């Protein structure tokens, strides 16, 4: 639950983030905010890093599904070379991370003064950036390899080559949550883009599965779908909001007792 809460916190203002960090026992906070000009509707990257005695968390902010409409549906975007020369990544995601990466990396090196565990998290666009941040750190600066990457409603982010390399490097350290009918993880389209493994699918009853059952998944996805899957009223969008992830995972935790 702590990682989905950290992803949710990324949508808040700086004062709220700092107050919550103190409540959680973190004594250092660094905000990251940069502007960039991709050929897409988004123009900035926002994230924060919390530093404590035993743990460091960097959380990337996401965005509304409507703002990702053209971005996620475009399969013609030129690829961006993957971290450490491994495969390729979605151009927009890569540029969004590139704009803020120097700030993040400097902060991680500054805060990690007690061999703390390091985690990346994010929702939606933020999930894509969290996954890429984990890949960049591992393949470009392995002394700072993340102990865990948690994403919620992450879109497809990279090609099959990087996905394979990432899956091998992050066994038991990557957790990619998808809430029921959430449409964003189905974009951008295959086969150009591919998901990394470690799926945690939350079904309509709130149970968490390591795979998406074929029949059950199709039945779930058949509920509430509209002609425009990114329309505000669609089931695929309702299931994408970060609040829906928090509620679903709280329900799952209650069911586990």
UniProtKB/TrEMBL annotation:
Q: Which Gene3D superfamilies match?
A: alpha/beta hydrolase
> What InterPro entries does the entry give?
AB_hydrolase_fold, Fungal_lipase-type, Sec_MonoDiacylglyc_Lipase
Source organism superkingdom: Bacteria
Which CDD domains does UniProt cross-reference here? Lipase_3
Any coiled-coil regions, as ranges: none
Q: Which SUPFAM superfamilies match?
A: alpha/beta-Hydrolases
Q: Where is the Fungal lipase-type domain?
A: 59-190
PANTHER family to which the protein is assigned, alphabetical: ALPHA/BETA-HYDROLASES SUPERFAMILY PROTEIN, FUNGAL LIPASE-LIKE DOMAIN-CONTAINING PROTEIN
Protein name, entry field: Putative lipase
* Naturally occurring in which organism (per UniProt): Streptomyces noursei (Streptomyces albulus)
